[in-house]
Amino acid sequence: MYFLLLGCSLPMVRQEPPPGSQVSSVMMKIVAGFLVLGLILCQAEGDYVLPKPNYNEVKVPRFQNATLPCEFSFIEGTQDMSFIWLREDIIEEIEVEDIYAYIQQTFEFKEPQVVYSFHDNHKALEDQSYAYQERVSVDKEEVGDGVLTLYMHRVDYQDEGLYTCRAIGPHGKGEIKLKVLIQEEEEPPVVMATEDNVTVAKCYSAGWYKVPIVTWYNRREEEISENSTIIVLEEKEDGSHRISSTLSSVKSHEIYHCHIRDAKKARRARTVHRKLKKGALREYGEF
């Protein structure tokens, strides 16, 4: 039986205890020592460590539209040309001191989600993930010129991830990798209005919030939220709200920005990998 450890396959040693007895702590330390030695030897094989892919970051405000750029010079027309957009979870590494927790972790392979695909002059969306149906598009007029930019409508936390744009044609092939991060704050448009013969600034949330927090800024990025109020427009059964906010004491020549976020921290899609904290091998002898 084998397990994957930092890209190396090491034999998993299993000691079968005699009936009615337990594996002694001494034997467990011997087994752990063997595994740690294998880990150290694996880490020493630097020639076999693959470099991590380089992802360019794209940061998008929550509930706004995202533009993921992708362009290849080798594309000349759409005949015999294919391209695909794929999404994978962001991998988050956490440090642990417990070697057993590190060794016992499992690495589950997840198929990348198909966001958008194109083959021989036509969209090929049979395998498209449900999460992206009718939410993404590519400008067909630009595909023949090598512009495969993906437009994504109303992004949310589940859209965070590692995106790959991959293309192949008669004159070459290539791929571009992007890391999409969703900013916690929504920044809706600000409109000027008149209420009771007084000019005010208003904004309306596109998203739903359990505990909405609205912050107003002027063009100098000074916070001026003390003159604002919040009104609930709609409420869902789960207790989340769509809101509007009104800022008073405004000046017609000033520029205002409205930021909305939820006090409740949202869960983001992540794949978690454990790595050993520096010095964690000291108990077993470090080299």
From TrEMBL:
Pfam families reported in the protein's UniProt record: C2-set_3, V-set
Name this polypeptide is given: Uncharacterized protein LOC108709298 isoform X1
Signal sequence coordinates: 1-15
UniProt cross-references to InterPro entries, sorted A to Z: BTN3A2-like_Ig-C (IPR053896), Ig-like_dom (IPR007110), Ig-like_dom_sf (IPR036179), Ig-like_fold (IPR013783), Ig_sub (IPR003599), Ig_V-set (IPR013106), IgSF_BTN/MOG (IPR050504)
Molecular functions (GO terms): signaling receptor binding
Domain Ig-like: 53-167
GO CC aspect terms: external side of plasma membrane
Single Gene Ontology BP annotation: T cell receptor signaling pathway
Keywords, in A-Z order: Immunoglobulin domain, Membrane, Signal
Annotated localization: Membrane
SMART domains in alphabetical order: IG
Source domain of life: Eukaryota
